[in-house]
Every structure is written in structure tokens, then in C-alpha cells.
Amino acid sequence: MTDHDEGVSTLAKQGSITFVGNVVNGILGFGIVMLMTRFVSPSVYGLFVLATSVILFMQVFANLGLPLAIDYFVPQYLADEERGKAKGVIVQVTATVLVTSSLVAFALAASAGFVGDFFREPSMEVALLLLSVTIPMLAIYNVLLTSYYSIKKLQYRVIMRDLVRPIVRFSITAGLLLIGYGLLGLIVGYVVGLFVAISIGAAVFTYKAWDLLTADLELVAPKPLVTYSVPLAMTSVVFVLMGHVDYFVLGFYLSSDDVGIYRVGYMLGSGLMIIFNSLSPVFKPLIAETREDVELVQARFRTMARWIAGITLPIAIVVSLGASSYLSVLYTPQYAEASAVVALLAAAFLFNVTFGGPDGSLLQGMGYSRMVFANTLVLFGANFLVSLALVPIVGIEGAAIGSATALFLVGALTLIEIYYLDGIHPFTREFGKIVAAGVPAAIAGTPVVYLLESDLLVVVALPAVVIGTYLLTLLASDAFTEEDARMLGEFSPRLEKWLPVG
């Protein structure tokens, strides 16, 4: 392995681009939910969440997991200068998912009444009929996203996913809610935002990847695509179902009000995914292109794990301690009921994303798609069974316990599997310093929550105290490495010189 891994530079550059996009997307996403929770009741918002959960679940069947083959095979073909085959993968996947997604959309539209009856929500039939058109749209949307991942040009993905879609959706939704359209306003904003994002994303990809798209088409054998994709398709089915099973169980046992309140808590807790989601799209191709070099893979995994843990840990402490205040200020006081949900999920997501994430991006990059599928079955099974047992007893906290249990379990499985198969692990002395720095940060933040009576003051003061203490602890423990300095240098040479390295 060379002294300076260029993959780390790529991870930093592209990760910083996606991070900015994720921050903008997150702000606009929170803004949309804040808008919804102020203009519609929790029951209407909960109904919309249930309907979109059904759509997102069905669209996984529609694309057969094939978009995931793009950012696995295309980087390899491009590395071998086989541009025709890289184009062939994109063309074959696009044509296939267009057909399958259209069929699934028709099937859902035909069964919309049955789904509405199952959840005892008559209005859901109309919502599903209107939203069914988004199933083929989401299939093409996912093809575009993974195409951007495969060529490591994530700035264009940021334009489509993190800027155009949320801005258009927010604008349309706000306008329709202001003139009193309620549920219809939420649906139209969702559909129009997706349509405009796909249109602009396709135009940008065509322009920026023109040399790839104009290469002589060379169709590839479908068997490797299917062999890789089918386990991940099943993984995606289970994974998406896992992500929405909470809403399904809550919708069956409780009311749409509870679904809406839980969704807000889940959204705040899962906000910790922002760093992982920024690095993961480029991390998987980086692993895939060097998967035979175990030493290099481990070095990249350790770098990613340290950065994810180092940035995510103080955020987890802030949202866990101040959950009630953040829910009350960002949304309305009635949503503070989900504070325990936020704390449980923050801890679970922190653990899970540090060691590969709920989608198993490390295992995917190493080619272990069947193992990812098996892990996802565990993820879904644990979440479903625990939620099913606890929701009727303890309400929305039962769903949170189910999700947290599953995330902890799969994070641990990923660590065990990757160590057993390749001897890879992320644990170093430097990693330990990152985790240990969270203890004084949490201790310093606790009095802020209990001594300040104003929720707004807690929202402002808590991040300053926790993050400030955390950074001082890292400096005092000499936790930064040469690799950290190089990573920071990709953002600013001045930061690289400033960072004290032991």
C-alpha cells in the first residue's frame, strides 16, 4: 500500500460534495415536514406517510435491485477502459426497470382500495391512485443516482437529489397548502418535485457523461448482473420494508396520528445518517475497485469509520439529550411525545452507520451480496417481531425499540462477518479516542437540558456546549492522525496545517 492512498482524497472530495448536498436536502426536508405539521393535522400527515411508505416498498419490486448493479459493474468496466460495456450496463438496467416498474404501478393502482381497507383509511385509496405514477419515476430516479455514483461525479447527483427535488417540492407544497389543498397538496408537491428532478438530472447526466453515452454500445451478459442484483433486490425489499414496517405496524394497531408523531421522531433520529450518506455513495465503488487488496480496503474502512463516528457522535449526543426541545421548537409541542423515539434511534443509528450502515455498503463493495441479503432478513425480522410485540403494549416507543434492536444487531453482524471473511476491523487506538471523547461531551451537555427552562435556549446552547467540549477533548487526547490532516487538506490547506497531529 502506498503512503498516500488517492482513494482517501476521492472520499474526501466527493464526500464533501455529497455532505453539502445532504445538509441542504436535510434542511429543506425538515422544512417540508415543519410546513406539513403546521398546515395539516397529525392524522393527515400520518396518512401521507403511510401512502408514501407503500409506494416506496412497491418500487423496490419494480426495479428488481438492478440499479445497484450499475455502481458495482460500471466502475470496474471504466477502470478496464471498456466504455461500451459500461454503457451497456446502464442501458440494459434502464430498459428493464422501465418495463417492470410500469407493471407494478398498474398492479398497485388496481389494488389501492384493498390497501385502504386494510389500514382502515378510505382516503388512502385516492392517495395511492395518484401516487402510483411515481413508481416508474422512482425507478429511473434510482438509475440516475447510481449512474452518478458509478462515475464518481456526485456533484451532479447533488443537483438532482439535494437541490432541485426538495426545492421544487417545498415550493409546490407550500403554495398548495397555503390555499388549503391539504392532502392533495402534499401529493402534488411530491409528484411534481420528483418529475422535475428526473428531467433535470437526465439532462445533466447526458451532457456531463456524453463521452460514455456516445461510446459504441456493447451489451453485457445478463447473468452476472442478475446474480449480483437479485440478492440485493431481495435485500432492498426487506430493507425498505424494515424502514417502513414501523409505520405499517403503527397504522394497523394505532391511529394515523401516532404514525405522524412517530415519523417526525424517526426523521430527527435518523438525521444521524447524514455523514454516512455523504460518504457511502463513493465508498462502495472505492471498495469494489480494490476489493482484492485487503490491506487497502481495511485502511479505507478505518478512515471512513473514524470520520463517521467522529462527526456523528456529538450530533447523536445533542439530539438525544435535547430531543424534547428540538421536537417542540422545530415542529409543535405535541410532537415532543416522540422524544424517547429520537434518543433510542440516535444511539442505534450511530452504532450501525459507523460499521458499514444498514445497507451493508462495505459488504456490497466486497461482493458479498448474498450476505447482505441475509443480514437484511435479520434486520427486518428483528424489527418486525419486536415492534409487533411491543407496539400494542407501549405504543410508538415499541416501534423505536424494534428498529433500534435491529440496527444494533446488524451492525454487530457486519463487524463479525467482515472480520471472519477478510480479517478486517476498524478498531484502533485512534478510533478509541474518538469514542471516548463523547463521555465528557455528554456530561457537559446534561446540565444544559436540566437547568435551562426555555426550549429555544436549549436548542441554541446545547450544540455549542457538546461540540465545544468534544473538540477540546479530541485536541487534549491527541486524537488526530496524518490521514485526518490529509482529509482536511482536501477542504482547505489552511485547516491541514492548523490541525495538530501526534
Automatic annotation (TrEMBL):
It is a multi-pass membrane protein. The keyword Transmembrane applies. The chain crosses the membrane at residues 19-39, 45-68, 89-114, 126-151, 163-181, 187-207, 228-254, 266-287, 307-329, 335-355, 376-394, 400-419, 431-450, 456-477. This is Polysaccharide biosynthesis protein. Keywords: Cell membrane, Membrane, Transmembrane, Transmembrane helix. It is found in: Cell membrane. Pfam families: Polysacc_synt_3. GO terms for cellular component: plasma membrane. InterPro entries: Poly_Biosynth_Transport. It comes from Natronobacterium lacisalsi AJ5. It comes from the Archaea.
